[in-house]
Amino acid sequence: MLSERIDQFYIDSFKERDQEHFYITDAGKCPRAVYFKFKKIPKKKPEPRVLRIFDNGDYTHMRIMSVLFGLGIVRATELKIPAQEIISGRADAIIDIEGKPCVLEIKSIGSYKFAKLQEPEPDHMKQVQLYMHFFKIPDGILLYEDKDKQNLKEFAIKYDPFLIQEALKKFKELKEQIDKNIVPPIPIDIEPWRCDYCDYKEECQKIEKK
Ligand code: SF4
Questions:
Q1: What is the side-by-side order of every strand in the sheet holding 100-109?
Q2: What residue ranges in the chain does DSSP mark as E strands?
């Protein structure tokens, strides 16, 4: 069947990158899961459906960016943060808002989440704050698109030094744990959905049982 061949294409094309430094997106993830990735703990392969969802997210970015280029407000796109010790990342764009630079992060989310969204999701907030920090730009925008209906919602973000220091401190702690082979404890405030969808659930449970 054609759909099976398409699925197989996704499975064959998927390559897991080794992790040698933190990505800004790790700021919102479970530290134990990030630790497992650094340690190359085997994990279950993503389903082709999930890989197609990632593809869709990429197309959303391209579509919105082409509009922003049309508006003539893009200063830079896919911009890497300045090189430093442990974190790497690439901001979606730096755009011009009334003559000032502004970090833009684009997210596509499902209709249900989109309808309930009254403020930026905490993981996304950490990401955009870190980009603002590394680019030394005090303003940001988180732009959400409803992936089913293409409605948009945006949130203006102001630089929050407290949130940034917290995120950087957590990265530093995790780096020490990785260097010393200390498995991070399960965060006390871990949301159950993270564990439900976690690729390292089995390994994590094995450690807890020990
Ligand atoms: S199962 Fe939960 S606690 Fe364990 S690594 Fe995954 S997200 Fe973290």
A1: 74-80, 90-97, 100-109, 139-146, 152-158
A2: 22-23, 74-80, 87-88, 90-97, 100-109, 139-146, 152-158
| 46, two tokens | 């993503």
* CA 43 centroid distance within chain: 19
Q: Give the separation between CA 70 and CA 46, rounded to whole angstroms.
A: 35
Rounded to the nearest whole angstrom, what is the distance from the C-alpha of residue 55 to the centroid of ligand 1? 25
> Cα(110)–Cα(115) distance, rounded to whole angstroms?
9
For the chain, the domains span 29-209
Question: Residue ranges of the chain with pLDDT lower than 70?
Answer: none
Distance of CA 198 from the midpoint of ligand 1 (Å): 6
Architecture of domain 29-209: Alpha-Beta Complex (3.90)
C-beta separation of 157 from 125 below 8 A: yes
* Nearest alpha carbon, ligand 1 atom 5: 33
Condensed to tens digits (0 to 9), the pLDDT of residues 74-93 reads 999 999 998 877 899 999 99
Ligand 1 atom with minimal separation from the 29 CA? 7
pTM of the model: 0.91
Ligand 1 centroid distance, CA of 141 (Å): 30
Q: Best substitution site from 43, 178, 190 to test ligand 1's pocket, by max atoms within 8 Å of Cβ?
A: 190
Ligand 1 centroid to residue 118 C-alpha, Å: 27
Half-sphere exposure of 191 (CA within 13 A, CB side): 7
